[in-house]
Automatic annotation (TrEMBL):
One of its GO terms (molecular function) is sequence-specific DNA binding. InterPro entries: Class_I_gatase-like, DJ-1/PfpI, Homeodomain-like_sf, HTH_AraC, INH-QAR. Residues 211-297 form the HTH araC/xylS-type domain. Pfam families: DJ-1_PfpI (PF01965), HTH_18 (PF12833). Keywords: Transcription, Transcription regulation. This is Transcriptional regulator GlxA family with amidase domain. It comes from Streptosporangium sandarakinum. SMART domains: HTH_ARAC.
Amino acid sequence: MSRVVFLLIPRVHLLDVAGPAQVFSTAADLGYEHVLSYVSEETPVATVQGLPLHAELAWPHLEPDDLVIVPGWRGPARMARADTLYRLREHHAAGGTVAGVCAGADALGRAGLLDGRRCTTHHASQDELARLYPRARVVRDVLYVEDERVVTSAGVASGIDVALHLLSTRHGPYAAGRVARAMVVYARRQGASPQISAMLRHRGHDDETVHRIQNLIDTRFTERLPLSMLADAAGCSERTVTRLFRHATGLTPLAYQTALRLERAEHLLGQGATTETAAREAGFGDARMLRRLRARM
């Protein structure tokens, strides 16, 4: 039986705590035994969402097989005590794994655990992380990174992904799959997956006509979608569709559809599908097209 210890920083994000905690709690329910503990330098611990959390002030005894997770928080951290950072360093030096969710990477950086290691954080904070810890190797636009038992993730929902990854490394992919199904997680995402999907990456505009076209492409991206069909759905000419779409997203409708297909294919490949299967299920005519696009990337 191993212990999972959450170090809670004031103004912690609830989902950064609850997501990974749910993963290991569900795993325990399914017979993969874990004991969850919550520690902090003060209690109750304020959360960004307004719900205070109780945590213990005293740390439990840690073994090398135990896991320490630092969920993210908003604003400057008040975790300044040297003994807290020492505990993180000590656990890692003893062979333990330390993980930071979102801003939790900052705590690992303060503890000196990011020096010379690959790491990541929320896409809005990657530049700041690189500035604060120049000896760290910040990997941008990925969900999570593991380097010598130091694990960092993009934060918020990606805390679930990294927790499933950690569960998989300890108990195997079957265990992680059982937990994901029990939690109704639609798909297990790999660490190298981008933080923002192709759908969301091109939705930052306010053109309702283009949003309607995107809705159609999103739901039927594996099909052949002639420009005339998109024009009929938008109630305008084909030329206007192309002009509006490019102005709003920077892409043509076909390029947007191809991006969705490629993202789907990459996910399938990450799950073990062959190139031929991934190409077919993503809507490509054959595997050669998929290989050319991946090589171009």
